[in-house]
């Protein structure tokens, strides 16, 4: 997850000088959303599906394996997933630290958001200006929006902003705006609601909490905040003349001069800091409809970035989980009638008579043989090796042979009807077909 998202962000950073003058802010925003998805979705668990997809796209047939073995290097874990090897303490410390920081960071941001929302709603007054309702309804139709949007004012609010992920509320200050200014502000905030920017910021916050150790996720979160503003500005000034863009830019500058900084991760405000505002105004001057060739090129670049980012799942080595089934000790009791004379060793005979013979299993080894006669070493497990990720199994029938060594020097061969997946090597044994006992092991 962290590696895949980082690759997308690195490619985004490399392409950024090209993207700003050539590609739209909306396209950049889509790339950032893709990076957030890679940070949040555990694609390595679906590595097998990815390989099957590549095989389907490029029309190649995967070669069947010819050897199968179990790596001697392994980590033993308990039923809760914690290692019981020598590195368990270090692993546990890192795991607890990672999870602890992630939870604390996320809870802090959510609590901060709810406290701010509660405080701001206490003094909220519903906007009764008829102009506001007309503007909102007009632009909702223009944006094909069905969400219910509430517009409120608050005497403590300095600048316009939107709050609420599922029930959005636009807050306006008590300042007197002209009809055009009010229209631009509301249109801008409605664009945020249309684009689900607060939800995207929440996803970015979750990624930031999970990958707090990764510097690239901080860059991602910062870029989401900047580019979502650029995408809204781009929609508003598209197909507008330069005079309209100047008035819109002037409104943003006037807002930032009296701006109160809302230090909350889930607030979308009309203006940003001075550096971001300069970039927004510079971008607005160059907004134009992209040509068809640019659209095609941007699509090719986006698909290429997605494919390059997705190849990181191939770096994930499936962790094999070995399920152990303890074989019960096989006990055999024997009652013997002993005859002895005075020359016999009476003590030895008494010991033999009273001894309960116990054939204990010392070790178990398994081998799979397919229908073509090819053999594959399986290792010490009766249930085969289950892949860590999902696999669309493709089975081949054969025989699973279990070789149990007994402490009396003998052995037992257990034969099972079985099948093996040619992709992930998972072995499924259905029923035992034969059992052969050797007094002395010849294997």
Summarize this, please?
With 443 residues, the protein is α+β, with helices and mostly antiparallel strands. The protein is 47% helix and 16% strand. A hairpin with a 4-residue loop joins strand 9 and strand 10.
Number of domain units: 2
Major sheet description: 5 strands, mixed
Structural class: alpha+beta
List low-confidence stretches. Answer: 64-74, 320-362, 380-389
Distance between the termini: 46 Å
- What is the β-strand count? 14
Q: Can you write the helix and strand succession as a string? A: HHHHEHEEEHHHHEHHEEHEEEEEEE
Q: What's the Cα radius of gyration? A: 34 Å
Oligomer: single chain
Estimated share of beta-strand residues: 15-25%
Tell me the number of helical segments per DSSP (H or I, 4 or more residues long). Answer: 12
Task: Identify the strand order in the major beta sheet.
Answer: 1-2-4-3-5
Q: What overall geometry do the principal axes of the alpha carbons give?
A: elongated
Q: Helical amount among residues, as a percent range?
A: 40-55%
Question: Quick check: average pLDDT?
Answer: 76
Question: Which tags fit this structure?
Answer:
five-stranded antiparallel β-sheet; 443 residues; 14 strands; 2 domains
Structure description:
The chain is α+β, with helices and mostly antiparallel strands and 443 residues long. It has two domains: 279 residues, no CATH class; 118 residues, no CATH class. 47% of the residues lie in helices and 16% in strands. The chain contains twelve helices and 14 strands. Strands 1-2-4-3-5 form a five-stranded mixed β-sheet, with helices on one face. The chain has a five-stranded antiparallel β-sheet with strand order 10-9-12-13-14, with no helix packed on it. A hairpin with a 5-residue loop joins strand 3 and strand 4. Helix 2 packs antiparallel against helix 8, helix 6 crosses helix 8 and helix 7 runs antiparallel to helix 8. It starts with a helix and ends in a 5-residue tail after the last strand.
